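Bumping my old thread because nobody answered last time. Still need a sequence for this structure:
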C-alpha cells in the first residue's frame, strides 16, 4: 500500500543515514585523538590556557554512540510503523442468526476488526465480487476505456432483462451482468489474468477452470470466479482492495478512479459507500468494498454461508449487514 511502501523507504533511508553518522563519528573521534596526541607532544601547541579551553570544549560535545543511534532509530520506527492491532468485534445483531463473518480493515492505524475470524480466513468463491477485478483488468489492458465503454449484446434473452442490450461498464457493473465481464476477461487473456492475480495476491489465483462450471445454463454466464477454481477469503478481499486503492498495485490512479466511480453505492453526509455484491446458488452472499470519510478509507468484507437459506443469505443481505456494521 501507499503507506507501507512510503514507510519502508523512510525506514531504509533513516537506517542508512544513521549508519553514516556512526561511521563519521568514529572518524571524527580518531581525528580528535590524533590532535590531542599532537598537543601533548608539543607539536603546534599553544599556551596551557588554550589547551584547557580545548579540553573543556571536548567535554561539552555529546558522544554519538552506536547505542544512542539504535535508540533513536527505534523511536523513529515506532513513529512511522503503526503496530498491527486486531479486535474481536461483536456484529451478531447485524447478522440476526445468519451464519457468516465480517472483517473491517483500517490502514490508517493498521487495525483489523473480526467477527467470526476463523471463517474470515477461509477461502470461498468470490462470485460477482470478482467484477471489481475484471473491470480493473479491462481498464488496465485497454479492453475498456472508461465507465461508458460498451460491450455488444448477442441477442440472447437472459433471465435478467437489464442484460438484454448493449451495456456500458457502469450499467454492467450496476446490474452485475455476467456476459459483459466474461467478454472483458476473455479479451484480457488467461496469461495476463493469472499474472495480475498473483501481483494482487488474490486468494489462490487459480484460473485453471477458465470456462467455469455449470452454475448457469449458458457458457457466457459461467467462469472460474463462479463456484469454480478461483477462491478467496474475506480477509484477503479487504487486503486486495487496500492494495488497489491505497497505491500498492501497478494500476494507475486514473484506472482506480474509474473503478471507484462505478463501485459507488450510497452517500450519507460525508461518508461514501463503495462496493460490490456477490451471490452463490445455495445460501452464499458477499458484499465487499470500503467507506470513505474525508481522506480515510475503511475496507470491509461480509460473507454469508448458510446453506438452504437462499432467501435471506445472499448478496443483498450481505450488503444490508455491511451497511449496519459500517455505521457503528
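Sorry it took so long. Here it is:
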Amino acid at each position: 500500500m501507499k503507506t507501507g511502501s512510503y514507510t519502508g523507504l523512510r525506514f531504509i533511508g533513516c537506517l542508512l543515514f544513521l549508519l553514516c553518522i556512526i561511521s563519521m563519528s568514529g572518524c571524527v573521534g580518531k581525528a580528535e585523538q590524533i590532535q590531542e596526541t599532537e598537543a601533548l607532544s608539543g607539536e603546534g601547541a599553544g599556551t596551557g590556557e588554550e589547551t584547557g579551553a580545548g579540553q573543556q570544549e571536548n567535554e561539552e560535545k555529546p558522544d554519538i554512540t552506536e547505542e544512542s543511534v539504535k535508540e533513536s532509530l527505534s523511536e523513529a520506527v515506532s513513529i512511522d510503523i503503526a503496530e498491527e492491532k486486531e479486535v474481536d468485534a461483536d456484529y451478531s445483531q447485524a447478522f440476526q442468526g445468519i451464519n457468516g463473518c465480517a472483517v473491517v480493515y483500517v490502514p490508517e492505524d493498521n487495525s483489523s476488526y473480526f467477527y467470526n475470524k476463523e471463517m474470515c480466513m477461509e477461502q470461498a468463491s468470490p462470485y460477482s465480487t470478482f467484477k471489481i477485478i475484471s473491470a480493473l483488468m479491462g481498464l488496465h489492458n485497454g479492453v475498456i476505456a472508461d465507465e461508458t465503454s460498451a460491450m455488444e449484446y448477442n441477442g440472447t434473452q437472459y433471465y435478467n432483462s437489464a442484460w438484454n442490450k448493449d451495456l456500458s461498464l457502469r450499467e454492467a457493473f450496476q446490474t452485475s451482468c455476467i456476459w459483459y465481464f466474461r467478454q472483458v476477461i476473455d479479451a484480457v487473456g488467461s496469461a495476463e489474468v493469472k499474472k495480475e492475480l498473483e501481483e494482487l495476491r488474490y486468494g489462490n489465483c487459480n484460473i485453471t477452470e477458465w470456462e467455469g462450471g455449470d452454475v448457469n445454463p449458458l457458457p457466457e454466464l459461467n467462469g472460474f470466479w463462479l463456484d469454480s477454481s478461483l477462491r478467496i477469503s474475506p480477509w484477503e478481499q479487504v487486503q486486495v482492495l487496500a492494495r488497489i486503492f491505497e497505491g500498492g498495485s501497478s494500476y494507475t490512479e486514473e484506472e482506480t478512479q474509474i473503478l471507484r466511480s462505478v463501485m459507488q453505492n450510497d452517500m450519507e453526509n460525508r461518508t461514501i459507500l463503495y462496493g460490490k455484491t456477490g451471490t452463490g446458488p445455495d445460501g452464499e452472499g458477499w458484499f465487499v468494498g470500503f467507506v470513505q470519510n474525508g481522506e480515510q478509507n475503511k475496507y470491509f468484507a461480509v460473507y454469508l454461508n448458510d446453506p438452504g437459506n437462499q432467501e435471506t443469505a445472499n448478496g443483498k443481505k450481505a450488503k444490508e449487514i455491511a451497511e449496519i456494521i459500517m455505521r457503528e
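The first helix runs from residue 2 to 41. Let me know if any region looks off to you.
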